[in-house]
Amino acid sequence: MTEYKIAVLPGDGIGPEIVEQGIKVIKALEVHLNVRFELQYAHIGGAGLENSGVPLPDETLQLAMASDAVYLGAVGDYKWDNIEPERRPEQGLLQIRKAMELFANLRPVKAYRPLLHASTLKPEIVDGIDIMVVRELTGGLYFGKPRAREADRAYDTMLYTRPEIERIAHVAFQLAQKRSKKLCSVDKANVLSSSQLWRDTVEDVAKQYTDVELSHMYVDNASMQLIRNPKQFDVMLTENTFGDILSDEASMLTGSLGMLASASLGEGKRALYEPSHGSAPKYAGQDKVNPIATIMSAAMMLDYSFNLPQAARWIDEAVLDTLNDGFRTYDIAEPGSQIIGTSQMGDEIAKRAVQRCQTATQPV
Ligand code: IPM
Ligand code: MG
Questions:
Q1: How far lies 127's CA from each of 102, 106, 160, 255, 296, in Å?
Q2: Taking the model in full, what pTM does it have?
Q3: pLDDT bracket for residue 138 (50, 70, 90)
């Protein structure tokens, strides 16, 4: 039996309750897959500050490095709003991404049919959307130096090197090859030097992927096109800050930020899985929020880190089945739908994932 070590970092706010649902789902599949998921828990973000005085305790990073995958909830709480900037809970997340060199953040944006009316956009605009946002995750404004806050002056640096752009571009081109062979690279090359290097480098990398149709778009236009005609996009490649913003925007096409999973990949087997949304401290502990993004992040973990694409598909189908059966958390509810809590949503999906697995593996 294969054993996989997962470092589980629930974090803050709603982190613990959503992570619990993802764990519930993969644990329910364990026996059917003939694998064992060994879970080891550690603190990050505000939980790290509370327990060890820093947002990324050494033992957390060590555990993460020694694991086959990291499964993370969310970080951040109002409680830490006035702490020195370098100790904010969010730094825990930025530091672990940097320390593990998780440069490729994949955020799939898919429209679920039963949720077409949950989107604020017209159903015909969102029906059939299947976008993969590839966000560079360890460079750009969030890490560039120099940066400083002075009394009445402050600055950040959007810095990229050619190798940093090349490696993320390769990830995006290879994904495009497996999908519809269309890649749109988003930048602001009409203004920013870092974007000019970005565009030139992506053009150079493109020479190795002649089967992929590459286009470029300025980020302001891309943000508009995403809600005007989102179906024109398949793989979107962009730098860190633009990707942060565009992926939140794109999540609304699916109906809720609570639907957007993510995988952050580095060299070799390094990988971290987390929902794209934040810690929503105001809803923490109320069994109210949508765990689907976190559950789908666990599905991505099975697919990318453990090579269990079939199991990932069962979870995906189970989510769809659960939605088709009318279950909704409040954020994706419509009049008449049955509103359930976080934990029940986890139960319903786990149950249906097992059913999907059993039907699929039944001898014919
Ligand atoms: C995300 C989040 C983080 C980011 C924050 C919490 C640092 O917004 O994962 O998108 O900006 O990357
Ligand atoms: Mg974000």
A1: 32, 21, 36, 11, 20
A2: 0.96
A3: very high
